[in-house]
Amino acid sequence: RGGASARGGKMASTAAGKQRIPKVAKVKNKAPAEVQITAEQLLREAKERELELLPPPPQQKITDVEELNDYKLRKRKTFEDNIRKNRTVISNWIKYAQWEESLKEIQRARSIYERALDVDYRNVTLWLKYAEMEMKNRQVNHARNIWDRAITTLPRVNQFWYKYTYMEEMLGNVAGSRQVFERWMEWQPEEQAWHSYINFELRYKEVDRARTIYERYILSGVTLAQVHQYCFFNVALLVIVHPDVKNWIKYARFEEKHSYFAHARKVYERAVEFFGEEHMDEHLYVAFAKFEENQKEFERVRVIYKYALDRIPKQEAQNLFKNYTIFEKKFGDRRGIEDIIVSKRRFQYEEEVKANPHNYDAWFDYLRLVESDADAETVREVYERAIANVPPVQEKRHWKRYIYLWINYALYEELEAKASRNSSSFLDAERTRQVYQACIELIPHKKFTFAKIWLLYAQFEIRQKNLPLARRALGTSIGKCPKNKLFKGYIELELQLREFDRCRKLYEKFLEFAPENCTSWIKFAELETILGDIDRARAIYELAIGQPRLDMPEVLWKSYIDFEIEQEEYDKTRNLYRRLLQRTQHVKVWISFAQFELSAGQEESLSRCRQIYEEANKAMRNCEEKEERVMLLESWRNFEEEFGTETTKERIEKLMPEKIKKRRKLQAEDGSDAGWEEYYDYIFPEDTANQPNLKLLAMAKLWKKQQQESEAAEMDPDKDVDESQS
């Protein structure tokens, strides 16, 4: 029954609750209002109307002790309740203690801080507030006790140490402050702590003590026996807490600032010894050099820079290079400055060739640098390193830059090395010969060769007055890998030596190797012409034009024709022109033939020239290239204007074509329509196929002229009457 009544009560409350819920009004018009109100506008209006401002609480005035005690009781109960709710929130403890402090209840405040430390003794803020309270209330001994407990409990919190030492110094307790610093240094703190200790001693002019601290600072960590090897004074635990380069530099500058220059130099020397060659740093040597520079010890500066540059890796010595260059510019001579610049550039080139040994352009720049500055042995060593980087692929395009390393090497051995060392010319020549021979042996002649290297070797042997070796080299090159340049170079050599029989043999070999080379045929014929053997030259020309394949036949025929003209063999020249016209009907051949007849200087030259033009015009009627026929007619017209009569001039004018503009359809590569283009065409009066078109065109022009005349007559009838009367 009890359960039923409970269920009944629950249902009744639910029903009552349903009755209490107001009905939600249905919105009929759901369209947006004309004036929209934003959240920003609502906030702005609320601020303007000050709707959220609450009136300040009424001020309470405490008039007697009972009210004060009651207020304290209520306030303490509030703080205690907050602490009881969450003991770990330190801000509640601090607020509580500060409130007690404001009432001058120092003992209560201490009690609160102590209770808070029991909860969280690692909270730094709590210790700081506790100590600051004691210091504000001039409770020095209490403050000392708190700082002692703080640095004992949390010795790695530097703020405690800083506050403690500052308090002792402000109280004038220099010895106490020093004692705190000493306790701090036993924990080997960070660098700033050591600097604070040093600055503290310097404020009281204790330079010796500051020096001792520097010694401990940069060397802390070794036994006392090792300390005496480094220190000037008896100090305890040293070496390896902060043995950084910058700390050594600060130590040296400290000595320099206080005019202990010998001590400063000793510090730099000890730093160099301490770091050794395995952990060298450019900043140490730069600082050392600048110190010596300030002491006017320029030779020492130069020695320091050179010592460092020889041992520090070049990629880590950029600042060192820069400072050394500035020093030499200020105090050195021109040679010293150049040495610095050269060494820096040499390092750059070394890095480039190390990154890519087949970068031959970098090798060229590097070699040019060392040739201008280094001795012969150094240059030779760099050349040997460069030529050792043979292209990995036997393709000529990969060897074109590489082969110039050998050429420059040989030229250096022949020219520069001879001037740079006191050795005999025989030794220089032998070394140069070895370079050329090694290069020739290295080139894969079965796949490709370089005519330049063969010719340079032969020219070198000639300069050494060793003609048999030069001929042997060129003969070997022609036998192994014949090339046009090799033949030309060998022939030119023999021509200079006036060995014409050898030249003939070489030309014969050359033409057997490359019978299509028209230039070789022409040069061979010219050689025979110079030697006066005309029949031999003519036979060479006949052999040349009889070749089935030629690279420049027009040049060969022109040379042959010019040769016959020089010999004044006009009949043979005409015969050559006729033979050439059997092979080609080119317009330039006809024009050249006509000009030859004109320049022959004979009585019938004009008639012969005119006859040639007529033959050419008849032959070119069926030529598809109308521009060539026009070129011929223009040349003929120029001839007639200079040498012809009125009849011949009228005749050639009748033969001149008419230039008309036409249109033709264009097609793209894919066959689609690409539009129309205009072009010029020539209509020749002699072409019978074009006569109907010409007649139609003439009739059209006549009809158009008549139309224009009739229109003019209609526009001006008086003019017609006057004309009829007249």
TrEMBL record:
Organism for this UniProt entry: Zapornia atra
Function: Involved in pre-mRNA splicing process. As a component of the minor spliceosome, involved in the splicing of U12-type introns in pre-mRNAs.
GO cellular component, one term: Prp19 complex
Domain Pre-mRNA-splicing factor Syf1/CRNKL1-like C-terminal HAT-repeats: from-to ranges: 91-398, 429-578
Lineage: superkingdom: Eukaryota
Gene3D superfamilies noted in UniProt: Tetratricopeptide repeat domain
Annotated stretches, region: Disordered: 1-27, 706-726
SUPFAM superfamilies: TPR-like
Gene Ontology biological process terms from the UniProt entry: spliceosomal complex assembly
Subcellular location: Nucleus speckle
The UniProt record lists the keyword ATP-binding: no
Keywords assigned: mRNA processing, mRNA splicing, Nucleus, Phosphoprotein, Repeat, Spliceosome
UniProt similarity note: Belongs to the crooked-neck family.
Residue ranges with Acidic residues bias: 711-726
Native organism taxonomy: Eukaryota, Metazoa, Chordata, Craniata, Vertebrata
Main location: nucleus
Name of the protein in its database record: Crooked neck-like protein 1
